[in-house]
Structure formats: structure tokens, C-alpha cells
Design a protein that fits this description.
Helix 3 crosses helix 4. Among the domains are: about 120 residues, no CATH class; about 80 residues, GMP Synthetase, Chain A, domain 3; about 40 residues, no CATH class; about 70 residues, no CATH class. The protein is about 25% helix and about 15% strand. The termini are far apart. It is of the alpha+beta class. The strands form three sheets. A five-stranded mixed beta barrel has the order 1-2-5-3-4. Strands 9-10-11-12 form a four-stranded antiparallel sheet. A three-stranded mixed sheet has the order 6-7-8, sandwiched between helices.
Length: about 475
């Protein structure tokens, strides 16, 4: 089975391209950040051709540098190599080799004989890779400790990333800051804490997002961390030119700045706007009235107009708008905005829409409320037996209603209990209340409930 990209075949069905061994992506470098497609990889070169001796090497994040292959080592994309550094040696991966490196040098404004281009030592051995991996494993803990020290010193800076050199003899700290920071004391404390050489590099917010990476609002990986190498200035004018809503939450990227993709189609919009009439306050004079510009769609080449006394928007093609503008300059007015009149123009020309707001009095509802209040007072103050709202006739009406309906008087009628022959003293008058003594005037006396009762003698009853 052939590779999906290079089309090469192997006995076991895999890709024959040496190097990274990712079965097809080794020639494109898609597994790397800021990759460049090597379209000369599978072309047959002349027999007397000497390979270009400068190689592009990628390190952690999006950092790339150029190194000279003075010993003509056979290198492939994705191979791990040991390169020269200003203090010791470093370990990186080959991201591009061959003739395409000449174009990359020209893009970065470097010459082939530049003295800043260092040399390649050798291919990385197993011990070099193990040592490099061990230092990479220490980066998270080191970064956390470094941030704690910077916070204790109350420095207005943010440490975003850290990178150990391949031999561990130097550490690079990447930070962002709004103003200039004096970190001389910080470097001394870092050197005493980590026992290594310290290098501080200030990066912009876009470079910080490029190193850290992430997923954008479009659902794809960030452009700055995959293929974008130069960061052009993005202004709010780019968003206004494309008729985008000024919403900073949508227009800002993960770096907190305006998205770089706002500049991608800016030239197309600027070229298309040359055919549109200038100015947003545009009016078209017609026999039906004066129509004002409401909306513009640049890519569809459509403009929407509306009349002052109607909310309908009329879409008009750009060619027709330019024709009407030329007619108005000559003093002529077309009958309608478009060749075939539509509803909004017919209403404004033959039957103007009524104004339901300006023709009405604001206090019209207050008079209605006063009339209703007066009518309610008359009903309540009406005299005579027929007015049920009058409090004087309330009891009278209630009694009349009860009489008409044959209602019985409200109250509990006492029930006549029959005497029980089995109980003693059944001949006494029945009732819930005890019979009191009579007073001197013959009226029954009310018993005193608070009077103490006589004590009964305890013990057996006396014998007769």
C-alpha cells in the first residue's frame, strides 16, 4: 500500500522515506510547527549536483534556526541532531534541507556566508536523546518555581514558557510584559536556585500564542503556531472595512489582540469597494421620494435602501445604484428604485403610511382613566334600595335576599335531648351550663368559677 502523500511503496506496505517514520508525513513536515513542504524531495537531481550544506533546524515551540552541514552528513527531515550553541551544545530536529533552504534564507534576510550560522556536530545518539528527554521532563516544575519567585519579587511580567538546552547548561525563559522590567536581581536568584546559566527573552503576545499553540474559534489550530511567520499590524479599520460588528470578544484571538485573519481578505474588500459609491450617508432621489442607504453587502454587490416613512428595505444591485446616481447628478429622477416597483415604493407613492404616533396625544389615556373613575364614584354614591354598592342598603339587601330565597336564620338550634331513665337525676332540667343559685331579686346567680372548692374528707366513708 502506497503512502498517502509521497506515493512510495514498501514490502510491508509502509513508507520508505527515512527520517521521522510517520508513514507519509515525513516529506511534508506536517508533524512540525511552521512546516514547509519539500516539493523537491522526490525529484531526480543531476549526478554532479552538490547538496546545499545549510539545514533548517527546529527546536521547542516555533523557534527555528539555520546550521551549516560542513561534514556533509546525510540528513533527512525529522532526524534529531546535535548542533553548536553559544554555551555548550543543543539538540534539535531537522525541519528542512536541500534547495528550499536557500529560499528560507532569503525570506529571513540571511546570506549563505553569514558568520552567525553555526555548524552541526553529529546525529544524536541514544545517550544524547535520553539526556535531552530528562531535561525536558524538568521544565514544568522549573517553570512553576520560577513563576513563584517572580511573584514574590512583585515584578510586572508573565513567564509563559521555558526551554532547557540539550546539555542542560542553559535555560531560556520567555516572558511578556507591558513595560520594561529590571530583572537583574531575578537572574541572580534564578542562577542560585537552578544552578545553571539563565537567559531572559521578551516576546510579544502573538509570539507567546505561537509558542504555546491552541485551537482558534474557527476550529483549527492557530495560524501563528502552524504556518504564519510574520505578524503584520492589525487595526480596527480592517474590521470596519469588511462591515464586521465591533465585538472585541469575537474579533480578538487567544493572544488578546485582534485576529491575524482579519488581514487575509482585506485587499479583496478594498478592491471591491472601489466600485461602490463613497460615503455611508447616501440618498437616492426618485419620484416616490428620497431613499436612504441602510446596509451594504460588498461581496454580493448589493445595497439596501429605505424611505423615511416606511421600514421596508429594498435590495438594489450595485449597477442600478450607480445608474440612479448618474441620473440624479443630471437632475433626473427615476420613477422607482428598481425596474419593477415593489410594495414599499407603491405605499410611499400612492398611499402614504399613516403616522400612528405623532398624530395622537400623549395624555389621551389620562382622560379615559378620569372618566372611568367618575363613573365608578357615581355607582357607589347612588341612593335607593336598588344600589347594592351602598353600605346602608347592604344589610337590607342581604335580608331581602335571604327572605326571597327562604333562608333560615344563621345559628345553631339547640337540640332537645330526651331524658335517660338509666341515669340518676334524669328529672333535672337538661343543659350544658350548671344551674346557679338565685339572687335576692329572683334572677339566677352566675356561678363563680374562681371560688375554691371544699376539700373532701379522705378515707373510708363513715358508717351509718
Amino acid at each position: 500500500m502506497g503512502c498517502g502523500n509521497c506515493g512510495s511503496t514498501h514490502g510491508d506496505g509502509g513508507c520508505t522515506s527515512p527520517g521521522c517514520g510517520s508513514n507519509g508525513d515525513c516529506s511534508t513536515g506536517a508533524c512540525n510547527k511552521l512546516n514547509a513542504f519539500d516539493w523537491l524531495n522526490h525529484m531526480t537531481l543531476p549526478s554532479d549536483y552538490e547538496p546545499f550544506n545549510i539545514v533548517e533546524v527546529r527546536f521547542k515551540g516555533s523557534r527555528k534556526e539555520f546550521y551549516r552541514n560542513h561534514e556533509n552528513i546525510d540528513l533527512y527531515t525529522g532526524e534529531t541532531i546535535v548542533v553548536e550553541s553559544d554555551f555548550g551544545h543543543d539538540v534539535g530536529q531537522v525541519s528542512l534541507s536541500g534547495e528550499l533552504v536557500r529560499l528560507q534564507l532569503r525570506k529571513n534576510h540571511l546570506k549563505e556566508d553569514d558568520a552567525s550560522i553555526r555548524k552541526i556536530y553529529r546525529k544524536a545518539s541514544d545517550s544524547d536523546k535520553e539526556k535531552y528527554t530528562s531535561f525536558k521532563a524538568k521544565e514544568p516544575a522549573t517553570l512553576e518555581r520560577a513563576r513563584t519567585i517572580a511573584m514574590d519579587m512583585k515584578l510586572a511580567m508573565k513567564l509563559s514558557d521555558i526551554e532547557f538546552q540539550g546539555d542542560g547548561r542553559k535555560v531560556i525563559f520567555y516572558y511578556t510584559a507591558e513595560k520594561r522590567v529590571d530583572f537583574r536581581t531575578l537572574i541572580k536568584q534564578y542562577a542560585a536556585e537552578f544552578k545553571t546559566r539563565i537567559e531572559m527573552r521578551q516576546v510579544s503576545y502573538r509570539e507567546e500564542a505561537s509558542r504555546l499553540g491552541g485551537i482558534g474559534s474557527c476550529g483549527r489550530e492557530l495560524c501563528c503556531s502552524t504556518w504564519l511567520t510574520d505578524y503584520k499590524v492589525v487595526t480596527m479599520g480592517a474590521a470596519k472595512t469588511q462591515n464586521l460588528s465591533i465585538n472585541m470578544l469575537k474579533l480578538s484571538g487567544q493572544c488578546g489582540r485582534l485576529k491575524c485573519c482579519l488581514n487575509y481578505e482585506l485587499e479583496t474588500y478594498l478592491e471591491a469597494l472601489n466600485e461602490f459609491p463613497k460615503g455611508d450617508d447616501l440618498y437616492l432621489e426618485t419620484a416616490a421620494g428620497s431613499a436612504k442607504l441602510q446596509k451594504t453587502d460588498i461581496l454580493k454587490r448589493m445595497l439596501w435602501f429605505s424611505y423615511p416613512k416606511n421600514s421596508e428595505w429594498i435590495p438594489i444591485d450595485l449597477v442600478r445604484v450607480n445608474e440612479i446616481i448618474q441620473m440624479n447628478k443630471k437632475g433626473n429622477k427615476p420613477e422607482t428604485l428598481v425596474d419593477k416597483p415593489i410594495g414599499a415604493e407603491i405605499i410611499n407613492k400612492y398611499e402614504p403610511a399613516p403616522d400612528l404616533i405623532s398624530d395622537q396625544d400623549i395624555n389621551r389615556y389620562d382622560e379615559i382613566d378620569e372618566q372611568r373613575k367618575k363613573q365608578g364614584k357615581k355607582r357607589r354614591n347612588k341612593k335607593g334600595p336598588g344600589n347594592r354598592n351602598n353600605p346602608r342598603n347592604k344589610n337590607r339587601n342581604q335580608g331581602a335576599d335571604n327572605k326571597d330565597q327562604g333562608a333560615k336564620p344563621i345559628g345553631n338550634k339547640p337540640k332537645n335531648k330526651k331524658p335517660n331513665p338509666n341515669k340518676p337525676n334524669s328529672d333535672k332540667p337538661q343543659g350544658n351550663k350548671p344551674q346557679g343559685q338565685k339572687s335576692a331579686d329572683g334572677k339566677p346567680r352566675r356561678p363563680n368559677r374562681n371560688r375554691p372548692r371544699p376539700n373532701k374528707p379522705k378515707g373510708p366513708a363513715p358508717e351509718a
